[in-house]
TrEMBL record:
Organism: Sphaerotilus hippei
Keyword tags: Flavoprotein, FMN, Monooxygenase, Oxidoreductase
Chloroplast as UniProt keyword: no
PANTHER family (alphabetical): BLR1330 PROTEIN (PTHR42747:SF4), NITRONATE MONOOXYGENASE-RELATED (PTHR42747)
GO molecular function, one term: nitronate monooxygenase activity
Entry superkingdom: Bacteria
Lineage: Bacteria, Pseudomonadati, Pseudomonadota, Betaproteobacteria, Burkholderiales
Family in the record: Belongs to the nitronate monooxygenase family. NMO class I subfamily.
Record-linked Gene3D superfamilies: Aldolase class I (3.20.20.70)
InterPro entries linked to this entry: Aldolase_TIM, NMO
Stated name of the protein: Nitronate monooxygenase
């Protein structure tokens, strides 16, 4: 199946994934101008009325950039909506997205036909994130256009499946757009995602260690200094299993190697405890490849160089 027009012909097959608290217009704009899809959770705009200002800033800045760079325009942007019942802002945030005709909506935590219909109504495309094949089928049944396969080792709420298993299963029955999420931080890994059947690499943690990310310097430096050994998978902090940096857990007075499990009924995203994410740092396993805090443009330029080099190497072989 051909990719929807908004996702076709990106200069690099990369989506900068939405990051709670961390993604904001500055990061999204830098990602889009660097030629990858930039994204942010609607819930990062607080109070809710700020979403309108943020979408105005992103659309106006990118339009001006495109007018000045007609030969290399920006990539499209995406807004992430948590469609879980505890998100009491969903209706209001969707109305703002409709006014700005947000080109790509990334939905998380439960697929919803009404949300998909609304996005299609303004000409947008919906990508739904899933951690297994059953959720993938449900999402497509309910009208999502594409899937984000969140594999083991992803930052934030990660799955437990090998990326090979997930993509192989999905590609048995689905030929629409698929992005692969989890530990991708080099151009070679982006090419590998494509080789195994994904259309896009979905990259989060590598963009936390950038100048434009809205994270503390300590968090960014911790990503530079850490590797996969420093990541722990736990449900303690939000009720859903996710990957976190051990040093931040130690700093909060807990032993990251002996964490209790949490009660899933505690899951709450509308009034999510931002402090948990502010102090307990979400992060995927792929950060061993991140060795400096750099501007987004530099991180994307390195991904591009590595991607082209890996492709040339394989073609030559
Ligand atoms: C700190 C942090 C916050 C995140 N917040 C969100 C979020 O609000 N919504 C969402 O759909 N995914 C969220 N994610 C998951 C990412 O969008 C993505 O799936 C993941 O970062 C990809 O794996 P990687 O970090 O190994 O590249 C978050 C991830 C991290 C690390």
């Amino acid at each position: 199946m051909a990719l929807p027009a908004v996702l076709a012909n990106l200069p690099l097959p990369i989506i900068g994934s939405p990051l709670f608290i961390i993604s904001h217009p500055k990061l999204v704009i830098a990602q889009c101008q660097a030629g990858i899809v930039g994204s942010m959770p609607a819930l990062n705009a607080r109070p809710a009325s700020q979403l309108e200002d943020w979408l105005a800033e992103i659309t106006e800045t990118l339009a001006a950039y495109d007018a000045a760079h007609p030969d290399a325009p920006s990539a499209p942007f995406a807004v992430n909506q948590i469609v879980h019942r505890s998100n009491d802002r969903l209706e209001q945030d969707m109305a703002v997205c409709a006014r700005y005709r947000v080109p790509i909506v990334i939905t998380s935590l439960g697929a919803r036909t009404d949300v998909n219909d609304a996005v299609h109504g303004w000409g947008g495309v919906v990508l739904h994130d899933i951690i297994n094949d059953a959720f993938a089928r449900k999402a497509i049944d309910k009208g999502a256009d594409g899937l984000i396969a969140v594999a083991a080792g992803a930052g934030g709420h990660a799955g437990v499946k090998s990326p090979f298993a997930l993509i192989q299963e999905i590609r048995q029955w689905f030929d629409g757009p698929v992005a692969l999420s989890g530990s991708i931080a080099t151009g070679g890994a982006v090419l590998a995602a494509q080789a195994m059947g994904a259309d896009f690499a979905y990259i989060g943690s590598a963009f936390i260690a950038t100048d434009e990310a809205r994270a503390s310097e300590a968090y960014k430096q911790c990503i530079v200094d850490s590797s996969s050994d420093d990541i722990v998978y736990s449900s303690l902090f939000t009720g859903v299993h996710g990957n976190y940096l051990k040093p931040s857990i130690r700093a909060a007075g807990l032993d990251p190697d002996h964490l209790p499990d949490s009660d899933p009924s505690a899951m709450n995203f509308g009034a999510v405890d931002a402090k948990a994410w502010k102090d307990i740092w979400g992060c995927g396993q792929g950060i061993g490849a991140i060795d400096a805090i750099v501007p987004v443009a530099e991180r994307v330029a390195r991904l591009r160089r590595e991607y082209l080099a890996a492709r040339a190497r394989l073609c030559a072989a």
